[in-house]
Design brief:
The protein has about 220 residues and is α+β, with helices and mostly antiparallel strands. The chain has 4 helices and 10 strands, in the order E-H-E-E-E-E-E-E-H-H-E-E-E-H. Helices cover about 15% and strands about 35% of the residues. A hairpin with a 7-residue loop joins strand 5 and strand 6. It is globular.
Length: about 220
């Protein structure tokens, strides 16, 4: 498998080609850093976008949804577009039209595959929890058959994909650098706070390391 994905008509950048990345290391790094994604699709002739959580296993990305939701009507083979975005900074220039943002994003196109086998679904549930909180699955109450039935899991191969990244400061018109206007970057980062225990926790139940050590970004 190549470390660099082929550009397609859907993934090639029309503008700002220097921001495009087609290597798996960049794409996978962004997917692994941000669990929240948006899945776009056409259902009943209407476009829709669903926010959900995603996790990566090798060269596939997975996400889940309620089987009773609109997104639950997605079927195997349906074309989807999955995106993940991270905001890293507000870029303030000397001209209003040169203001920008520093960001990292991934866009993946392909046909969704719905996982119907209950045992495979259960494995995917485990992989999802372990992707976010390593070591937590074995501590949890087992998933019931009804929960498995009520939750849909879909996957998408990471084949037709691209990343787009902007870093650095503002890029002004040459003559604007002589203007007495402050320009620069306001960095933005995700902050993970200390875990807040459920007041209904039983006495003596301690906060696990996978909650204390959770990180994102």
């Amino acid at each position: 498998m190549s470390d660099v994905m082929d550009k397609t008509e859907r993934t090639r950048l029309r503008r700002m080609h220097e921001r495009g990345h087609f290597d798996r290391e960049t794409v996978n790094g962004i997917l692994d850093a941000m669990p929240l994604c948006h899945v776009g699709y056409i259902l009943d002739g209407r476009p829709a976008v669903t926010p959900t959580l995603q996790w990566r296993e090798g060269n596939h990305v997975y996400w889940h949804s309620s089987s009773a939701s609109r997104a639950g009507r997605l079927s195997a083979g349906m074309d989807v577009c999955l995106t993940v975005s991270m905001l890293d900074g507000m870029v303030m220039a000397r001209s209003a039209m040169h203001h920008s943002v520093n960001f990292r994003s991934v866009m993946i196109y392909g046909k969704a595959t719905k996982i119907d086998d209950p045992e495979i679904k259960l494995t995917k549930f485990r992989n999802m929890i372990e992707a976010y909180f390593p070591g937590r699955w074995d501590l949890l109450r087992p998933v019931s058959a009804q929960e498995t039935k009520a939750t849909m899991v879909l996957s998408l191969p990471i084949e037709e994909a691209s990343a787009k990244v902007r870093t650095g400061g503002p890029k002004d018109d040459e003559e604007d650098y002589a203007l007495p206007i402050w320009a620069g970057v306001v960095p933005i980062s995700f902050s993970v706070g200390a875990p807040i225990s459920d007041p209904l926790n039983l006495p003596g139940v301690e906060t696990p390391d996978h909650a204390t050590n959770f990180r994102i970004g």
